[in-house]
Amino acid sequence: MSSASSSAPAPLTGNMLWAAALVLAAANFMVVLDTTIANVSVPNIAGGLAVSSSQGTYVITSYAVAEAITVPLTGWLAARLGTVRLFVGSMLLFGLFSVLCGLAGSLETLVLFRVLQGLAGGPLMPMSQTLLLRIFPKEKAGAAIGLWSMTTLIAPIMGPILGGTLCDQASWPWIFFINTPIALGCGYLGWKLLKRYESKTEKLRIDTVGLALLMVWVASLQLMLDKGKELDWFASPLIVALAIAALIGFAAFMIWELTEANPIVNLRVFRHRGYWASVLTISLAFGSFFGATVLTPQWLQGYMGYTATQAGYATAMSGILAVMVAPLAAQLSTRVDPRRLVFCGVMWLGCVTLYRSFSSTDMGFWQVALPLLFQGLGMPFFFVPLTGLAMASVEPEEMASAAGLMSFMRTLSGAFATSLVTTSWDDKASYNHAELVGMLDSGGGALRALTDSGLSSATAYGVMEQTLQGQSIMLATNQIFWLSGLSFVIAACAIWLAPKPGRVADTSQAH
User: GO molecular function: any one (predicted)?
Assistant: First the structure.
């Protein structure tokens, strides 16, 4: 075993302390930002690379899956490399792969670099939080976590706005290029300010079999979901092969991890009822939330005439009230049964999403944006107390593993939901189109009215087809919102499977 430092480091004070805090917060902000900045950019990316919008969502899912796979490795990487080296190295690699994403000339190369970007970004969230708690004295730890949490809430708001503005005013590669100066600056300053806090390193054995099985079943399932519609699902031998690989890989992964002495994912934490109920709730609710969040800008830009900037402003509305009520949610989560807060928060998200399932094609900006604005009221009452409930359900020595697994499941559910939503949206639109064709202008009156107004028959048919397509998409969008709202309701009820916690958890290990 080797040690990076044999004595306690001299603590940072004053401006140096807050400069280090800002570097760590900026790193967290950048990684969270990249989970949402591409959402409003998908139509622009798809157009620029000459692919469909459903294929364009691979840019989102590939990043999310890669990031999810890296999270369970963070503890092992930190022990092998040191927390500061891991943080700085991840930052620099994140910046490098961001540049390569912007330079990508095809969807295949862009997805490859997004995977590498996600792998580099995975350790940054937990490492930024860990280092914040290490450099701040205990009496100021609350302020440090408050700063870190604020970036986690603000970044999803800024992502759609920044992504939309950059796409409209410059071009889509700039949503990736913008990361580079931040990554280089944070990497350089992070090393200068934090190297005194480098942790001891040790040679730990990694569960290579568990890691390989994890990558096999997750990648196979994600590829199956992403390519299913394009290849006509189980009529394709490739989709069948991916499904079998995912099924066998998952079964082998479960058996191996439950019998391995030092598993890469500690599945034994699922023996706690409160923990698995919390993970079930966050997986259902976050999947519903993220799927609807990805769908909204595609619908607004593709069929409602919004620019990327306008879609970004509408989507970002959901974060404004979330930031404002987050401190209240944090206070109440230590005084009130967290199950009640989670139930109310998730049920509120469900009700707003069900309300959105009555949207129409003649809605104005504020009719789209106001429900999203009020949706933000439920978000902190979902995330904050649910994390506390999950951590209070496991043993203290299991918290790091439990937090990593919860983050893994949350990120994975978002990636899977994105694929399912975009595929279902296209399928439902095609079905609705076929249904509406039989009901459209059966008497020919609408066609005669259009031709009598001076339009040629071909133009009249084109106008009717455009209207038909718009209504088919609108119906499909409402159907997806309805299913997402129903999933929220199920998730809200699932939290009551958890017992009332007997203690308040220290959630500093959560990320």
Answer: transmembrane transporter activity
CA 457 to chain centre: 47
Virtual torsion, Cα 459, 464, 466, 467, nearest 10 deg: 150
At the topology level, CATH places domain 267-510 in Growth Hormone; Chain: A; (1.20.1250)
DSSP 3-state of 134: helix
Statement: the pTM of the whole predicted model exceeds 0.85: no
Burial call 413-450: b when 16+ CB within 10 Å, e when fewer = bbbbbbbbbbbbbbebbeebbeeeeeeeeeeeeebeeb
Reply yes or no on whether the pLDDT at 465 is more than 70. Answer: yes
Residues in contact with 305: Cβ distance below 8 Å, sequence separation at least 6, in sequence order: none
Rounded to whole angstroms, how far apart are CA atoms 66 and 106?
Answer: 19
**Three-state helix/strand/coil letters over 44-105:** HHHHHHCCCHHHHCHHHHHHHHHHHHHHHHHHHHHHHHCHHHHHHHHHHHHHHHHHHHHHCC
Which CATH entry fits the domain spanning 12-205: 1.20.1250.20, 1.10.10.10, 1.20.120.450, 2.40.160.60? 1.20.1250.20
Mean pLDDT, the chain, integer: 85
Each residue of 225-262: pLDDT tens digit? 888 877 878 889 999 999 999 999 999 999 999 998 88
Helix ranges (DSSP H) in 317-398: 320-332, 338-356, 365-375, 379-392
Q: Where are the alpha helices (DSSP H) in 438-456?
A: 445-452
For the residues 491-510, what does the mean pLDDT come to? Answer: 75
CA-angle at 461, arms to 458 and 462, nearest 5°: 85
Structure tokens at 447: 């066609």
Mean local confidence (pLDDT), 344-359: 96
User: How far is CA 221 from each of CA 226, 232, 479, rounded to the nearest angstrom?
Assistant: 9, 16, 24
Q: Contact, 349 vs 379, CB < 8 A?
A: yes
Angle at CA 61, nearest 5°, toward 60 and 65? 125
